[in-house]
Design a protein that fits this description.
Blueprint: E1 2-6, H1 16-25, E2 33-37, H2 41-47, E3 53-60, E4 69-73, H3 92-102, E5 108-115, H4 127-141
Parallel strand pairs: 1-2, 1-3, 3-5
Antiparallel strand pairs: 4-5
Helix pairs in contact: 1-4, 2-3
Amino acid sequence: MLLIGIGNAFRGDDAAGLTVARAVAARQLAGVEVIEHHGEGAELIELWRDRDRVVVVDAVSSGAAPGTLHHLDAAQPLPANLLCFSSHAFGLAQAIEMARALGRLPASLTVIGIEGKSWTHGAPLDPAVEAAVEEAVGMVLSGG
């Protein structure tokens, strides 16, 4: 399995995906490769190229309560309002849809979105997001 944690460690809750990736990497699990990434879409398509199983964890902004976890199977089109928050013009949602159009999606691609509250530079994770990070780590460890 390839786990990709997306985010920016210096932008509050945007660090949620990176925090999950670091927690999983610290466990040094056999058969699990962990990559921290900034979320640029074209690079994501290359990262999951020729992979059978990929889990991506990223902070999202859909209007749900902070800390809400969204578990998505990318075999189905993603909700348009869920992964639209990105500092890149071509982010995760666009990468998934482009890979789908090109026939380059992994056999299994799961997205775990952690609803954020604050994207303020230098802010720590919101307590609700921090609690959701622990739950997301459990989801990843149980198979995504």
